[in-house]
C-alpha cells in the first residue's frame, strides 16, 4: 500500500511457512508468500509519507480533529469485518491459541475506540486557556512528522497497532513494515487502510527490514522510529539515521522480568500465576516471567508442585479446545532452546519436570531448570520461549542486587503476604522496574496503564493515554494580558 494505491507485485517473493502441520505426518505448511520489496518501493513509500505530511502543512496534519476521527472510525469499522480472517491467520502464522487470537483482535479494536475517545478528550483539554503570571497560553498537541513503524511477531496485530494507531491519529504520516511471522494477517486489512485514510498517510511495505527499513532510515527523513521487538534491530536502524539525535524513539524491547516468591507466599496462587506468567503463549511475551526466585525455605515444595503443573498442561494446535501450549512459529527456535538447556545442564542445572525439553519439531515441552546460576546463558539471555530458570535465595538482597545489575527494567512479580515485609520491598522494586505486580504475574494490560521500562527495556511510554503523547509534541500560542 503506497500513496493510497494497492500495488500489484511482479517481482520475487518469499514463502510464508507455518510450523503447524496440516497433515498427520509432520510437514510445515506453506500459507502464501510476500513480495521481496527493496529500495525503490521503500523510497516511494517515504515520498508518499513526506508528501502527505508536507512539513506539517499537508492534508493530514492540518485536517480538523473531527475529520481525522471520522477516518479512524471508518477504518476500525472496516477492520471489524475482517475478524474471522485475521484470527485464522493469527493461529496459522504464529501458533496463537484460538481464544488468545480472538483476544488479540478484540483488544486491538477496543484499543482503537479507546484511543479515539482519549484523543477527543485531549482535543477538549487543548481548547482551554491557561494563565500564569499574566501570560495566557493555548497549549495543544501537534504531530512529529514521518513515523517508521515495525512490530513484533508475538502480537503482530495488537502491538503493531498500539504504535500505528496513535501515530496516525495524532496527525503523523506512517510507513509500516509487518513482522516476519504474522505478516499475512495484515493483508485482509490493506483495503481498510486504503479506503479510510487520505493517500500517503499509511504506507505498508513487505520484505526484509534490511531491504526496506534501513534505506528509509539512511535518508535522515524519518522523525520517529517506533519499534517493538529486539534492541539489535532497533540499534541497527537507529544507527542508519544520519541525524539520530533528532529521532524520537518509541521502543518496546527485551525484558527479563523476575518473580520473587517470599516464604509466606500463598503457593496455590503463586504457582498458578507463575504458570501463566512464564508460559502464556509459550513464554513468547516481553512481559513473560523469565526468571523465578524462590525463597530457600519453600523451594522444594514450589519446584515439585510447579513442575507437576507444567507437565499437566495441554499441548496442541491453536484451534484445539483447552490448549495451553502450541508450536513455536520460528523454525530455528527449538535449536536455540536446546542450546540454552545444554549450556545450563553442563553448568549444573537439572530439568525438574519429567517432560521438560522433549520436542517434536516445533512442539516443545517447557523445561523447569534448577539451580540456575549467573554463568548460564539462560540467566543472561531473554529466552522468549518455554524455558523457566529457577534460582533460590535466602536473603532478599540477592534478587534485588541481580535486578539492579540487570540491563533490563520492565516489571517484577512479588509473591508474599506480610504487609510489613512487602511495603518497603515494593518501594525498592519500583525504583528498579516500572511496574510491580503484587501476587500476580506480569502483563502489559489493561491498556490504559502505562507500559514502559527502564534501561534497555524501552524508550517512551505506551498505553491508550501515553501513546498519544509519545507520538506528539506540545506547541502553544501565548499572549499577554495588556
Ligand atoms: O510481548 C510483549 C507484550 O507487550 C506482552 O503483552 O502482557 O498483554 O501479553 P501482554
TrEMBL record:
InterPro entries: Ald_DH/histidinol_DH, Ald_DH_C, Ald_DH_CS_CYS, Ald_DH_N, Aldehyde_DH_dom, Aldehyde_DH_Superfamily
Superkingdom of source: Bacteria
Keyword Iron-sulfur set for record: no
Organism per entry: Flagellimonas iocasae
Domain Aldehyde dehydrogenase: 19-472
Any Pfam family hit: Aldedh
Protein's recorded name: NADP-dependent glyceraldehyde-3-phosphate dehydrogenase
Lineage of origin: Bacteria, Pseudomonadati, Bacteroidota, Flavobacteriia, Flavobacteriales
Family: Belongs to the aldehyde dehydrogenase family.
Entry keyword set: Oxidoreductase
Amino acid at each position: 500500500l503506497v500513496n493510497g494505491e494497492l500495488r500489484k507485485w511482479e517481482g520475487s517473493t518469499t514463502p510464508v511457512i507455518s510450523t503447524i502441520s496440516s497433515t498427520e505426518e509432520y510437514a510445515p505448511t506453506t500459507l502464501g508468500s510476500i513480495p521481496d520489496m527493496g529500495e525503490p518501493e521503500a523510497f516511494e513509500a517515504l515520498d508518499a509519507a513526506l508528501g502527505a505530511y508536507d512539513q506539517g502543512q499537508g492534508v493530514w496534519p492540518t485536517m480538523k480533529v473531527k475529520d481525522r476521527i471520522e477516518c479512524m472510525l471508518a477504518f476500525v469499522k472496516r477492520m471489524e469485518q475482517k475478524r474471522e480472517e485475521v484470527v485464522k491467520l493469527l493461529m496459522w502464522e504464529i501458533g496463537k491459541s484460538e481464544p488468545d487470537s480472538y483476544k488479540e483482535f478484540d483488544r486491538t479494536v477496543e484499543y482503537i475506540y479507546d484511543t479515539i475517545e482519549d484523543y477527543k478528550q485531549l482535543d477538549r483539554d487543548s481548547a482551554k486557556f491557561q494563565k500564569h503570571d499574566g501570560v495566557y497560553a493555548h497549549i495543544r498537541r501537534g504531530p512529529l512528522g514521518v513515523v517508521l513503524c515495525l512490530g513484533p511477531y508475538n502480537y503482530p496485530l495488537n502491538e503493531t497497532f498500539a504504535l500505528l494507531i496513535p501515530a496516525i491519529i495524532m496527525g503523523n504520516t506512517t510507513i509500516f513494515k509487518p513482522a516476519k511471522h504474522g505478516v499475512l494477517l495484515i493483508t485482509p486489512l490493506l483495503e481498510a487502510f486504503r479506503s479510510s485514510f487520505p493517500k500517503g498517510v499509511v504506507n505498508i511495505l513487505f520484505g526484509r527490514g534490511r531491504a526496506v527499513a534501513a534505506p528509509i532510515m539512511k535518508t535522515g527523513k524519518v522523525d520517529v522510529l517506533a519499534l517493538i521487538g529486539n534492541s539489535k534491530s532497533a540499534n541497527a536502524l537507529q544507527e542508519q539515521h544520519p541525524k539520530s539525535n533528532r529521532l524520537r524513539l518509541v521502543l518496546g524491547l527485551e525484558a527479563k522480568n523476575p518473580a520473587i516468591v517470599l516464604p509466606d507466599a500463598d503457593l496455590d496462587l503463586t504457582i498458578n500465576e507463575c504458570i501463566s506468567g512464564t508460559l502464556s503463549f509459550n513464554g513468547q511475551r516481553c512481559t513473560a516471567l523469565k526468571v523465578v526466585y524462590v525463597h530457600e525455605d519453600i523451594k522444594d515444595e514450589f519446584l515439585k508442585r510447579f513442575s507437576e503443573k507444567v507437565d499437566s498442561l495441554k499441548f496442541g494446535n491453536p484451534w484445539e479446545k483447552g490448549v495451553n501450549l502450541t508450536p513455536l512459529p520460528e523454525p530455528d527456535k527449538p535449536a536455540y532452546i536446546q542450546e540454552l538447556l545444554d549450556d545450563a545442564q553442563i553448568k549444573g542445572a537439572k530439568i525438574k519436570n519429567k517432560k521438560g525439553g522433549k520436542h517434536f519439531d516445533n512442539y516443545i515441552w517447557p523445561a523447569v531448570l534448577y539451580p540456575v546460576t549467573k554463568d548460564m546463558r539462560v540467566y543472561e539471555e531473554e529466552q522468549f520461549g518455554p524455558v523457566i530458570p529457577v534460582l533460590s535465595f535466602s536473603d532478599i538482597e540477592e534478587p534485588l542486587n541481580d535486578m539492579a545489575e540487570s540491563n533490563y527494567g520492565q516489571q517484577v512479580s512479588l509473591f508474599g503476604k506480610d504487609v510489613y515485609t512487602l511495603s518497603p520491598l515494593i518501594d525498592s522494586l519500583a525504583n528498579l522496574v516500572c511496574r510491580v505486580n503484587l501476587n500476580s504475574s506480569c502483563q502489559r494490560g489493561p491498556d490504559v496503564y502505562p507500559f514502559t521500562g527502564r534501561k534497555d527495556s524501552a524508550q517512551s511510554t505506551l498505553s491508550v493515554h501515553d501513546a498519544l503523547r509519545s507520538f506528539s509534541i506540545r506547541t502553544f500560542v501565548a499572549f499577554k494580558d495588556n
